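S., here's the first fold you wanted:
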Amino acid sequence: LLEVSAQLRPALRLGRGGPWRNPLPVIMINWFTSRQLTRLHHTSLCAAILEAYGWDVDAAVSSMADGEFADRFSVAADAAASSDAAFVSQWNPTTDADSGPSSRNDFSREHWHAQPSGSQGLGNATERDETVIPASSGLVWKIVALPLSMVRGSYDLMYGAVGLGMWIAGGILSQSLGMLGWAAGDGLAGVRARDQAATPLLAVSAGAAEALSFVRNFEREYGEYHPAFQTFSFVDTLRLAKDEFKFLFLYLHSPDHENTPIFCEQTLCSDLVVQFVNEHFVSWGGNVRATEGFKMSNSLKASTFPFCAVVMPSSNQRIALLQQVEGPRSAEELVTSLQKVVDEHGTVLVAARIVEEERRVSRHLREEQDAAYQAALQADQEREHQRQEEEERKARDAAEAGRRQKEEEEAARQAARDAAEKEAALERRRQEKAKALEREPEKGPDVTEVLVRFPNGERKERRFHCTATISSVYDYVGSLHFFDAVRYKLVSNFPRVVYGPDKLGLSLKDAGLHPRASLYVQVEDA
């Protein structure tokens, strides 16, 4: 950088009056915008930065390299906005192209999804996807695209399936060898057995495995008191930070760097840093020797270690870099840098939390309304069902009543028919009995007077010839209109004699009923 700036010093001297009064400053701006120098691609922004540094290329480049140009960039941003406000507005959705850049506190929740209009897609996640913008209050400093392998899920799914299959196969092989007596002893085999015992039953993603390995190795070196590093992949930890409305504190660990042990022992594991980070951030650590740590180191262009950064999710698999701290720092210096991020950008989290709370309340209200609607609908359906059941029950009762009425009417008609038939049969029998009787004789010595008493208390008396049979008395009783019994017997009291079928042929005189007899009717009908 110093060599390039030395080549541009003559242009700086000739163009001190301003970038557009001499063609040489145009060359200087083109050099300044080259990707080898600052990786800035916006001419107006570069001219504003140079003007903020008094067209001192050395100072501007040095500040860019050291990450210390943020304090002067508020002036540069104003100058760039006056020449090209549309560029600034694409990083701040609340900026009006006519009114210039937003105020220092005008950083709303929309920045969670802010994305430059000309950014590349995920498939082109190269160095050009990184865009440097102001680090002043209310503006994101840098938008960084994550590598494709860190965000795609098929790789982790395939890795988990293969890892689970290898674990099962290894367990079967170990069991088989154990049955053969080839048990693992001390040495390398014993170490592998202990490592396998410490391995989770189900395989995890590669990123989660690396995060877990980092935490274990870190605790082995520096103890268990440290920021609460998550044992998830970086993308999952970023999602966790978004869900908890916190910024993500990222630490890239370089075990080979000479300042790493002192930084970890005296700064990162100090009470001040641990308590502050655990309270305000979701933490993630990665070893630059591991895959995810190496990829994040390349994406964030980490050149000096120890390396710490504060990021938050953006859109299209990008992250917004809010602050980065490189090199050895004391605990107070690190907490001061982190506190600055919380103070300047905390409104983002507050706004996001408020919006999410409003969404939650609205969602809860909709759920309650839906539940009330469903309850009312169910109550209406139950009432309609009950009404239909009541109507069906009434219809069934009416049908049953009609059927019973018809049956009763039919039974009454049948009873009437049966009674009529019975009465007709009785009448025919009476007539037959009456025809079988002889004419009642006058009183005389050969005439027997017979008194017949009926169960209803009625009495009938008739005269018969003494030579008439008991059957004649039965015919007389059967011919009476008030007597309906079919089966009955005539019985005398003193002495008690039953005049049954075996005595029907006896004459009244032979039966001992002459000249006078008293008989009562004993009905045998059921």
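And the second, which I think is the more interesting of the pair:
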Amino acid sequence: MENSSETDYHQVSCIDETLGEQERSTVDYSGVGPVGKDSVITVTGTDKSNDFFEEETFEANKSGEQVSLETGESGETIDPYGYLNRGDFSSEIYKVELVNLPKRFGIAQLRKKLVFMGLSPCKIKSVDCGHFAFVTFRSEADRQKAFEVLQGHVWKNRPIRVKMAAANADPLMLKRKHKVNVSDQPVTKQLKTEEDADKLTITERLNNTVTPLWNIPYEDQLKTKYSTIREFIKRLGRQIEKNNETAKTWLSEQRLLNEGLCCKLHPIKASPVLNGYRNKCEFTVGLSPEGKDNTVGFRLGSYKDGVISVIEPDDCINIPQSMKHVAKLLQTYLQNETARKAFNPIDRQGFWKEVTVRTTASKGVLVIITFHPQNLSQEEIDEEKKHLKIYFESLFCQGEDTVSSLYFQVESDRKEKYEDGICDHLRGKKFIEEDLLEMKFRISPLAFFQVNSSAAEILYSTLADWCKITQNTVLLDICCGTGTIGLTMAKKVKKVIGIELSHQAVDDAKFNAQANGVENAEFICGKAEDLMPSLMRQIEGQEVVAVVDPPRAGLHSDVIRVIRKSSFVNHLIYVSCKPTAAIQNITDFTRQSSKRVSGIPFRLVQAVPIDLFPHTEHCELVLMFERENQSS
């Protein structure tokens, strides 16, 4: 499953999202207890995570962090920690450092342990080869509870120590401070790279950001992607062998058969459509490089790299003309019909944040306009929605009927973004429909759907070929979205059971089943880790094939444990849009049986990359697993 945070080319502008790429050195407050919001402490230290910082004295701000201020070229104060004093939510305010952790531990393992102990972690970041990790929480009460519960707790024979941790700096402000600090110094290698980038045209810089492989022949793109996947499978084999010594002999045999790989790797499958293939994009609203406000398009880089300029998507080769046209319509409205400015990620002022556009082959166009309310009253927000609705109705009367569905989304905090039911329907149809493998699928505003419909048909056809289904098969579709995978195979199996977290997607899946005359499909809303235990007891003893198409972060470890223990599930298909993030899942399916993961292990039998994202470095990877006692 694709996650919009990366392949939708939407650079999240919220500080809390971009922080965590690198952890600042922390100040040990363990001797004075938790630091209150009004504490002022003078400390001396060096931030080793950013080599441009000098040894200097700082004064702690309200969250206990070190502060060093500079003045920018235009005279504005550069405060890398100013975001902490704006009153906006950021879990960075409530952060701790866990010290003396076991030699080997996984993020998922640590998160589960914290939840089991009654804690509610927000973000967790560990450092390679370190015995420590940083954990953030959503409130001071949650952080205080972590101190009480974890201080001295013994995990794998190691007593955990808990310390206050300083918040990360705003990456954009750090970038600006860096430029100030080096202004009188020789040009560094980093700045030389920036100068080279400045020599490129705006079109070249935009395409390098959105479609990094845009100027490489497609055949060469496929070769590069295949080579990357091949190296991944080779490393994966070593990881599987490390975690399952009993599989060494079998793995050695497979390497002899598959040119050194732990499984058969099929040639990459190309996308039928190379240009204009995306059916969903999230455009940022912001300032153009020339200073034109309410420009709708893409950033030339990421926020953490110090880039906030927005460029219109006219020259993006992966976006269809209909989508570019809609972006232009919205930009015209924002620049001429409203006095409200774009949301500024630096001072977090302004209103217009994003424009999400979804299109289908049947000419359906769904638009979601995301708006930050600031301190506006509900009446003022309703007035803005009214003007927006009138604008599109007037376009419709003039013969402009491109937008078939219009939504308005109020988003004051990024944590609300993916909650169901927050999109306010303004006009037109409430859904759009896509044709796929001779079936019709309804798509709600926030429901997941593959962004390349033509290549998705190749993906789903491959899954049907690999699932080894019969009329006696119960197909378990985990993370099913709008039901596409299960429904395209429903007529060939006894029953389809889909599990999905999104209420909107489950409603779509149920509608899609009825609309396509499928009567043997059941779709359940909820967390897979909560639903799976009882569900597996209900279908125990039947012929079950599992297909999992999880989001980028992968499956919850509890889901893997349930599947491993369910001996009647002998065949498993795993779809990954980011294979490197799936390594932990894959090794858990294949690792040797233990108290933590019981049941007969799976073996990776074959894999195939499918290119759903031409001109980018991404592709889907389909992995087929069979039980050790089933594979030959």
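Why I say that: Residues 218-243 form the longest helix (26 residues). The radius of gyration is 26 Å.

Talk tomorrow,
H.
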